[in-house]
Amino acid sequence: MKYLFLILFILTYSFGYSQKKILQTKFTTDNITIDGKLDESIWQSTPEATDFIMFQPDNGKPIAENKKTIVKVLYDNDAIYVAALLYDDEPDKIRKEISQRDSFGVSDLFGVFINAFNDGQQDFQFFVNAADGQADCITTNTNGEDYSWDAIWKSKALITDFGWVVEMRIPYAALRFSGEQKQTWGLNFFREVKRDRQKYTWNFIDSKIANSTQQNGILEGIENIKPPTRLFLLPYSSFYVNGNGHQKTVGTLKGGLDIKYGINDAFTLDAILIPDFGQTKYDDQILNLGPFEQQFNENRPFFTEGTDLFSKGDLVYSRRIGGRPSTHPTTAENETVIDNPAGVDLINALKVSGRTKDGLGIGILNAVTKRTFAKIENTDTQETRRQEVEPLSNYNVLVLDQRFRKNSAVSFINTNVTRNGSFRDANVSALVWDLNTMKNTYNLSGNFKYSYVNDIVDKKGVYTSLNFSETSGQYRYSVGADLVTKDFDNNDLGINFETNYYSVYGNVNYRILNPTKLFNTFRINYNMYTQFHKETGKIQGNNINVNLNLDTKKNHYVGFGVNIAPVESYDFYEARAENRYVILPESYDAWLYISTNYNNKFAFDFNPSYSVFNETKRRTYEFTLGPRYRFNDKFSLVYNFEFLRKNNNKGYVDSVDGDTNNSTPETIIFANRNVITYGNSLSGKYSISSKMNFNVAVRQYWSYAENKNFLYLKQDGRLEDYQNYNTNKDSSFYSWNFDLSYSWWFAPGSQVSVLYRNNAADFDREINKDFRKNITNLLNNDALNHTFSISVKYFIDYNSLKNKI
Predict the structure, then answer these.
(1) pTM exceeding 0.85
(2) If you average pLDDT over residues 127-144, what whole number do you get?
(3) Which domains does the chain have, with CATH numbers?
(4) Is 306 helix (H, G, I), strand (E, B) or coil?
(5) Distance in Å from the first CA to the final CA of the chain
(6) How high is the pLDDT of residue 187?
(7) Comparing C-alpha atoms, which of 527, 541, 458, 528 is closest to residue 498?
(8) 246: confidence class by pLDDT, cuts 50, 70, 90
(9) How far apart are CA 365 and CA 353, in angstroms?
């Protein structure tokens, strides 16, 4: 016990930061026009924020006189106003690529970081680039920057003869603050000179300290303001035309409503009624030969925006909501499934989130999905019947996150899935802690998770981890351990692949904090990881990794590394059978990554790797090549080519009844195979302005696995030739996606989106190696889907509407 108190004492010992800068603001009754001209007289008498300091690459270096930056802040009863004069002795060289919202492009940048609770925990960040584009995000030290969050605010950027100017109006509805009469806000300003890849801040951010949100300056002078009524309505209407060779072209009209309501000064309710996700980005499907499902990115705005609280504990994989049904249809011998839905429709969803002035964050997420049925046909009588594969289901998430001492937090998370009737239910709870010393030099983090699944057989499991690390200085390290019991299962609302193990790991790294004669940045890492099967103690995974990452003086990025698995390991998953495993050989691989300076019109990414296994002729080759070209500030294209070849790869293909050759109740069949993958993608944008953009995204993917001979898995985990199996288990998967879109932000928060999409996918056991013919067949297939859609959403702010009325 005395050691526990010693650790807590070390973690709570208080150190002070260097003196924070303070900026005074002024109240105004003037009508400030956001035009970038700063011709209102009050700007001339407003206090200035100056003397910016470099954040990267030469941390701590004062800004040059020819790049001096002056920022002023005003406020009234509805908003704060920010004016920035960004001097540049070569204004014709200011980078100003036009890009869509939340995409900076190759442009100079100015940003405002606001923490109205001044608790060092969460910044609301607003950026304007030199092409007059906007970006905004919520930043926490734990989760980094979340650009899925969008606020409604005004800005204007103008290029001048002395550099460029930014003027901003940020309404109080876009911020969170208490109702106190006298406000003290955390504040910082940010500037990036893109052609030099140099970043500056007003209040110094020390790169030796791994916590930027605590290093803001102070904004004083705001008094007698009230948190506004935050009620935003976003009605939308969409029209879809769908068709392919199998069905008639049909049109569908949809409509719905998103609601954002500020319950009080801290908490916001988000709700969607009749959701429409028809224009979200397509999924990059692959040929998945492994034992685990493919994990997809979340592209639906409701489930990506402002979800930092719901990421606590890593318990929520929101693609479960509206994902595949939780059960598979069962059939008799004379029945076949003719329609098995790939997803479940969402009825509605809501979330409540926010944080009090005392640092308590509360997040509540609820979603309801429809009953879903598969269609089954009797092959003798051709009669059909429906079978329920997913009942009416309710998904809930509760998060309580208490922050304290400005840089630490303890969180409680609960996820619950309740399905109607006798279907499976699940409940998972977690306690998560993230503790830092006041000077952010050491961190103690970890979690304890408990899962309970109510199914045919109830399951209870535990997942716990603990990590200690030094988080400041040139030399840093971390050590940690995990323990996961066999029956831990959070896959009803989360995603987790491996259980029944314990692991230990560590990291040691060195970095430079300021540029040298050769490098802008330089970091070398040494990592070790070993995982043991909990019940037998066998090594499930082992890896030693050394990698080096650096930026050259010309801002080219280079990384390379070596991974070594020095001993055999036991894979308890690839066999797809209880208590069975396959032994994996020792392996060695090396990789290289080169990314040239994106400031150049032509740049490229190149990433080759090579792996060697301690098995005859077992090798893996892979490389990706991604050239990009910026024709001008409006038009750019990025191409990416991927090639992967696995020679003599070993993998599961089937399980059959046992035979006299190996006296096992079941024979698990593996294949010795070659796996080849080709991927081509092209993305491009043409921006008429920062509010009007055309985008194209094309992806072609082909991967096949050609079996050379079959093997069976012995009880000792070794593989041996097997002659009594001749079923064709070759695999070939093709996919094609094409999106052409137009987006116009015709008013703040209001958008017209036009999308043409065609896509197709095909899986086959016959491998045709004629690449051109495969593409032609896929595009000429009747399964090629065509969709044309128009969506209009209009942002309504209650405050603006009230003032107009």
Answers:
(1) yes
(2) 89
(3) 2-223 (2.60.40.1190), 307-478 (no CATH)
(4) coil
(5) 66
(6) 96
(7) 541
(8) low
(9) 8
